[in-house]
Every structure is written in structure tokens, then in C-alpha cells.
Amino acid sequence: MKELQELVSVITRNKTKSITIIGNGSNDNSKLNRFYDLIYTGQVTSDDEAFQRLYPNEKSKNSFYKLKHQLKERLYNTTIFINAKKTKFSSRREAFTECQFLLALANNLNALGARRNLLVVCDKVLKIAERYDFTSERINAAKKKMNNLVTLGRIKEANQAATLIESLCELQRKETYAELYWAQIQAMYVLDRSLKPEIFDIIESRLNKLAEIECSETSIMLEFHLAILETAKFMTVNEYASAAEAAARGLELMMARDYLYPTVIYSLTINLIACRIGLRQFHEGEQALASLGQFLTPGKFNWFKANEIHFILLLHTKQYEKAKTLHQETTGRKDYKDQPAYIQEIWIIYGAYLRILANAGKIPLTTKQKASPFRIRRYLNNLPTFSKDKRGQNVPVLVSHILLQLQQGKLEKVDDRLEAIGKYRSRYAGVEKNFRGNVFLHMLNELARANFDRTITEKKTKKLRALLDTVPVDVTSQGYDQEVLPYEDTWDLILSALPKAVPFRSAA
């Protein structure tokens, strides 16, 4: 009763009379609630529409703008109470919302001097935040608790809170640096997604610095960043077995907790699947992909990204019909058009490869496809983002362009396109950056030198083709999708597309 008495004494009716929120199913027919309902039901989508509905006989919009401001303020007030009554949590996000509400409540109680209730609220935050690894929230609650315990003269408990704060500060420091280092590594791939062996040493140095920070506490975010850095370190040098082990260890830690955090599980699993593809451990890759399904919501960004690597996995295992179905299911969704341009462009590229496979007889051509050839110019015009990318998806675009032209018998255009391959290869696909890409582009150059004769081409590229077997598929963290089809399979399609008729020009 003392805690309740304390609250009543500080929260007087005079202080609460001005609090306004959006009510729960109230019959309030005020203009403000009517405005809310008009927006909620989609009856108005602009200021002009709302003004006409709410103030049909007025010319000045001053009253409307005032009402608009009041509604925004009331909605802000209402957000404070959302999820406020939850005591059990089904997800980390809901727990985070509860912690933020309780910390805001603690701030108000502190300002009002309701110390008994403040301590109760802080203890609740500490319990939730400890379970769900909210380090900042733990520090925040522990500091409020410590300061008020000192004021109340409860020194032993205040010292215990101080000890906790000290260990949490070291954890927060380590967490922050780990997150910073991972962001720096990711930034190195934004404009250049090619293989970067030098990053191995950079990550190794960062991991050593993190190891020097001693702390008795741990958290899911610290464990995740350590695992993803270790995984990326090995992926930068194509050591996929070690990278897969690091990702698997990280996932084991994530899954061992009494709650699941889909975002970090997704990130590690995607990289694990990429490693499985590089190692040609396709069955294990399919298993990892299946386990990821429970953490994905159809139509969300991560769902589209997971479908990308699923598509690659299907092509690399020659499950072309399933890949076609996946493509249709992905691009056929209404929310597909809401995705960023580069996401849509990736699926446009995938569609071109499906057409290549259909042209080669690997999957059936649709009635529409039989009726008209693939419009290559339209395909390229639909890729404005990747047309600027010199080191990423530009390689599969180049390859698909050449293959489609070969299949359509446009040898002169292929010959013109191949002239640009040499420059591209020397500038953007050096051996040290992308060995397999460099070798494959070299093989493409031999097409023109062999006058598109299959026998001569196979003879001239025999040694180059053998080199592809010495290096696994490129599955670097930002560019594992560079080989939409393995170059070995792509080369077979190119050879099968070479004309059987007399070459269009004399051999050089």
C-alpha cells in the first residue's frame, strides 16, 4: 500500500486532467476522432481531402492545421501506452518496447520523487534487459537505481548496483567496438564487392583488439559480431570450411539462448549457406535454408534476400524447374514492386538466366516465350543500378548479354561485345580480385579468336577451363551471387549455343 500511496500523492487529479490519448473504442464523435478514423480507414489521403471532409463550409485552413497538430500530439501521447500492460514477451522487440516504456516511467517517477516505485520499476527493467541482452537499458536502469539507493541511505545495495554498472560499461565498450568494426568491413564492400584478401589481416587485427577488452559479461550482440567478423575473415580468402565453422559456432550460441533473435540468426545463416555453396555442400546448404524459413516473413526485405540465395542454390544444384517456380513466386508478389530497385534488378537478371536455360532446353519455354525472342535491349534498360556497378553484378549481366546474343545467332554483336570484355577484365576483374571471373572472361575472349568455332574454342580454352576447377565459386559476403550459374555450367551453355553453320568471318 505504501507504493500506491506514494503514487497517489504525486499523481494528483490536477496533473492528469490535461492528459489526452486516442481512446480504446470510445464513442467520442469529436472532430479530432473523426479525423483519426478518416485516416485509419483510408477515406482521406491528403490535406485537401481531409479539409473538405471536416470543414466543408470554411475557406481558411487555420482550424484544420490546428486540428492536425492536436492529432499528432495525441498520437505521440498514445504511443507511450502501447504494449504497456504486457508482462510476458514472445519476441525481443516486444521486450525492448516494454523496457523503453518502463524507463520513461522511471524518468517520470524520478522527477516526481516517487522513489519506492522507481526502484520497483528499475528492478523490472533490469530483469527484462538481462534476459534479452539490452546492455544500454541495463546500465540506464542500474544508474537510476544506484542514485536513488544512495539517497535512501541503502549503501550496500547502491554499491552492488555500482559493481554491476562497472562490468556493464566494459561490455558496452566491447559491444560498441565490435559493431563499429563490422560496419567498417561492410562499408568496404558497398562500392566494390570483389574479393579482398587484405581484409583478412584487417579483421584479424580488429578481433585481437576486441580480445584485449576484458569483461565478465556477454551479450547476444557481442557474440554475433564476433562470429560474423570471424566468418567474414575466412570468406575474404575463400577459406569456406573455416568460415562455415565460425558461422555454425555463432549460430549454436544464438540458438542456445532462451529467446530467438531472427535478425542475427538470418545474417549468420545466409553466410553459412553461401559457404556451403562454395564448398559444394549443397545438401547442408538446403538444410540451413530450411531452418531459416521459420525466421522469415514473406514479403519482407530479408525474405527477398533469402530467396536470392535460395535461387542461386537451386541453379547450382541444377534444380531449374524449382528455380523458375521460386522466381515466379517472388516477382509475382504485390510487395515485390515496393522493394529497392537493386533488389528488383537482381530478379530481372535471374529472369534472364532462366530464359537462357529455357532457350537451351533445360526448362520448357512458355507459349509467350515461343512466340517472341527475348528483348535484350529492354532487359539492359531495366538495370540502371547495375549498369553503374563495375565489380558486382556487372559480370553476370555481361555474361547473360553475350549468351542471349549467341542463342539468337547475333554473332557480329557478340563480337563487338567481346571487344569490351578485355578492358573490363583488366580494370575490374583482376586475378587478385576475382580469379574465377578473370579466367572466365579470358575464355570468352577466346570465342572471337576461334571465330566462334566450337572445336577450336574448346581446344584454345582447355587449360583455362581446367583452372576453374582449382578455385571454388566466389561466395564473398557481399558478392556470393556473382556466379548466378557456376561458370562451368555457363561455359557448357555457351559451347552449346555456338553455331553449327559456317562462321560469319574468316579466322584470324
Describe the structure in your own words.
With 508 residues, the chain is an all-alpha fold. The protein has a domain of 168 residues. It is built from 25 helices and no strands. About 1% of the residues have low confidence.
**What is the radius of gyration?**
30 Å
Distance between the termini: 98 Å
Oligomer: single chain
Overall pLDDT level: 85
- Can you tell me the residue ranges where pLDDT is under 50 for at least 5 consecutive residues? 477-481
Strand residues, percent:
under 5%
> Can you summarize the main beta sheet?
none
Q: What overall form do the CA principal axes indicate?
A: flat
Find the structural class using helix and strand composition: mainly alpha
Task: List how many beta strands DSSP finds.
Answer: 0
Q: Level of helix content?
A: 55-70%
How many helices in DSSP terms? 25
- Helices and strands, in N-to-C order? HHHHHHHHHHHHHHHHHHHHHHHHH
Please sum up the structure shown:
With 508 residues, the protein is mostly helical. It has a domain at 2-169. The chain contains 25 helices and no strands.
Which labels suit this protein?
508 residues; mainly alpha; 25 helices; flat
Task: Tell me the layout of helices and strands.
Layout: H1 2-10, H2 13-16, H3 31-40, H4 47-54, H5 62-79, H6 92-112, H7 115-132, H8 135-151, H9 155-187, H10 199-211, H11 220-235, H12 240-255, H13 262-278, H14 282-292, H15 301-316, H16 320-331, H17 341-359, H18 367-371, H19 376-381, H20 394-407, H21 411-428, H22 435-449, H23 454-460, H24 462-468, H25 487-497
Helix pairs in contact: 3-5, 6-7, 6-8, 7-8, 8-9, 9-10, 9-11, 10-11, 11-12, 11-13, 12-13, 13-14, 13-15, 14-15, 15-16, 15-17, 16-17, 17-20, 20-21, 20-25, 21-22, 22-24
